[in-house]
Specification:
With about 290 residues, the protein is an alpha/beta fold. The protein contains ten helices and ten strands. It has helices at about 10-30, 45-60, 75-85, 105-115, 125-130, 140-150, 170-180, 200, 255, 270-285; strands spanning about 35-40, 65-70, 95, 160-165, 185-190, 205-210, 230, 235-240, 245-250, 265. Strands 5-4-6-7-10 form a five-stranded parallel sheet. Strands 2-1-3 form a three-stranded parallel sheet, sandwiched between helices. Strands 8-9 form a two-stranded antiparallel sheet. About 40% of the residues are buried.
Length: about 290
């Protein structure tokens, strides 16, 4: 089984060493360390876990990390004030607003308020548009992390049929664009909850990527034998037999799909660590002021 796993944790560790070397070179040249900030509204457990992982990863590579924690009842205007402050803070190279946000806050309005030059999540329409046009931009962390995981795992993508399940602006849609770019050259089918006869499409995939946000949605009969399967999902599933009271699961039925897949990502330890290092890489790019010079 070990040889089947697409080990995002191990690959992310290698990338962290590469980033740490570049950060050290900046500091040796009497430049400041990159500075990444995060805004966390409320105490969503998954968001807390992600932000904690981000802080730990920043420490490991020498990137300065600051977290702004706001109450669950924070108003949209109050959050916009924090964003305006960070947009104008010369010490902060990039920042993220952790999603999801509470119901009283309009997510699109918040994303659009972020300075595109500091949008290291790559969600701002300016960065999305530049990415789609093939121009220099901050690439969304999870989609870029998936492509990099496959590339560094020596998975052939050129000419292959990649099926992405899920069309969110955060993962599915930008991932479909990145996979179809000339530097990857995959043939991409983007599916979603309204796709007719989904199973017939997924069973044709050489590479199947699940980002639909439903626990163990992808079952063994949806996967072509020998396909590469990437699971973007991560969910806490209630489990009374576990000391924590839950276990983690993805969008793929790992136990059964792993019997037919040639390669597969584990949950956790697959896509998650790659998302973090992609965010760190964007922060390094922001610090070096390379993105919008071209």
């Amino acid at each position: 089984m070990t040889e089947k796993l697409l080990d995002g944790k191990a690959i992310a560790a290698t990338i962290k060493k590469e980033i740490a070397k570049e950060v050290a070179a900046l500091i040796d040249a009497d430049m400041k360390a990159p500075h990444l900030a995060a805004i966390l509204v409320g105490n969503d457990p998954a968001s807390e876990t992600y932000v904690a992982s981000k802080e730990k990863a920043c420490l490991e590579v020498g990137i300065t990390s600051t977290t702004y924690r706001l109450p669950e009842k924070t108003s949209e205007n109050e959050l916009l004030e924090v964003i305006r402050f960070l947009n104008n803070d010369p010490e902060v190279d990039g920042f993220i607003v952790q999603l999801p946000l509470p119901a009283q806050i309009n997510t699109d309005r918040i994303i659009e308020a972020i300075d595109p030059a500091k949008d290291v999540d790559g969600f701002h329409p300016v960065n999305m548009g530049r990415m789609q046009s093939g121009l220099p931009a901050y690439l969304p962390a999870t989609p870029f992390g998936v492509v990099e995981l496959l590339r560094r795992s020596k998975v052939t993508l050129e000419g292959k049929h990649c099926v992405v399940i899920g069309r969110s602006n955060i993962v599915g849609t930008p991932l479909s664009i990145l996979l179809s770019r000339k530097n990857v050259n995959a043939t991409v089918t983007l599916c979603h909850s309204k796709t007719a006869d989904l199973k017939s499409i997924t069973s044709q995939a050489d590479v199947l990527i699940a980002a639909i946000g439903q626990v163990e949605f992808v079952t063994k009969d949806m996967v072509k034998p020998g396909a590469v399967v990437v699971d973007v999902g991560i969910h806490r599933v209630e489990d009374t037999s576990s000391e924590k009271g839950y276990h983690l699961a993805g969008d793929v039925d790992f136990k059964n799909v792993s019997k037919v897949a040639s390669r597969i990502t584990p949950v956790p330890g697959g896509v998650g660590p790659m998302t973090i290092v992609s965010l760190l890489n964007n922060t390094l790019l922001a610090c070096k002021k390379q993105v919008y010079k071209n």
